[in-house]
Structure formats: C-alpha cells, structure tokens
Amino acid sequence: MILLQLFGEFLRIGALAFGGGLSALPMVESAAVRHGWLTRADFPQAVAISQSAPGPYLIISAVIGYRVAGLFGAAVATIGVFFAPVAMVAILERQLSRWKDAPAFKAAVSGASSSAVGLLAATATRLTMTTHLAALSGVLAALVALILIWKKPNPLLVIIACGLLGLALPL
Predict the structure, then answer these.
(1) H or E element: which one contains 121?
(2) Is the separation of the CB atoms in 35 and 69 below 8 Å?
(3) Helix 60-99 crosses helix 2-16 at what angle (to 10 degrees)?
(4) What is the spatial distance between Cα 157 and Cα 144, in angstroms, rounded to a whole number?
(5) What is the largest CA-CA distance in the chain?
C-alpha cells in the first residue's frame, strides 16, 4: 500500500511540475510532510542529499522513497515522478512543433514560466528559513547567485566552494 501511495503522490507531482523539478519542491515538501515521510525540518537535508547526485531536482523522490520503503520505494517514487512528463512528451512531441508559433501556446508557456519563477523564489525562501542559520543562508545564497550571474564561474568550482564553506560554518 505504501508503494502505491508513493507512486501516486510522485505521479501527481511529476504531472504538475512545470518549469522543472525545482519548482515542484513545494509540492514534494507538502506531500512528504502530509504523509509523515519527512518533517519540515528534515526536508532541507533531503534536498541536499538528492543534490549530491547528478541529475534533476526530482531525484528527491528517490531519497524520500528510499526513506519510506527502501530500494523498492526509491524505484517506485522515481518512476512515478518521471512517468507523466515522459509520457506527455512522447504523446505531444509532434503537436508541440505545430503549436510553437501559436499565440495561445506562447501565452501558456509564458504563464507557466512566470509561475515557475515564483515557485522557485518561494522554495528558496522556505528552504532558507527552515535552517537555524536562516539569515546567513539567505545572504550566502544571494551572494552565490550574484557571482554566478555576473562572473559566470565554473559551476563545479562554486559547488565545491559552497561545500567547503558549509563544512567550515558552525552548524
């Protein structure tokens, strides 16, 4: 029953995750907390663990699935979260090339993009505020974003530098 619940929740999240996996994190957090799979305080750690592996943000589904039901839970949650987008792309692939210049399609994409930016900002704020170093985390996140935008350093070096800074901070 838990595997079906994991699959259903992550199928729903995958179907609604417009703008990429990061925009889905509020839905993932809500489902995980509602079902008792994680606490709000545990969620930032689950995000951090999921980001230690290469791949999209929705790999967090595997982290949560593994915590809930082991290896089968990780597999079921991961299949669930990626099933709907893959199926939609496979079904709509030919239609999208026909619709790409239609004003209504452009407006829908623009609206989805705007909502994704808002969800990203809400997610970043929520993740920052759940840490006991909330103010420092927010300042550091803003500083890193500015560095990435203006200086365009190698992202791997930024990840390594942030990891070392995280180790150096008194947690």
Answers:
(1) helix 103-129
(2) no
(3) 40
(4) 12
(5) 55
* pLDDT tens digit sequence for 116-157: 677 667 766 766 666 666 667 777 778 888 888 888 888 888
CA distances from 75 to 39, 69, 80, 164 (A): 22, 10, 8, 31
Closest by Cα among 41, 42, 59 to 50: 59
Please count the CA atoms within 13 angstroms of the CA of 116 that sit on its side-chain side.
13
Helix, strand, coil percentages (3-state) for the chain, rounded to 5, are 80, 0, 20
Which pTM value belongs to this model? 0.61
Which two three-digit tokens encode residue 163? 């990891």
Residue for token pair 């915590």 = 67
Residues 6+ apart with CB under 8 A from 53: 59
Give the span between the Cα atoms of 41 and 50, in whole angstroms.
Answer: 16
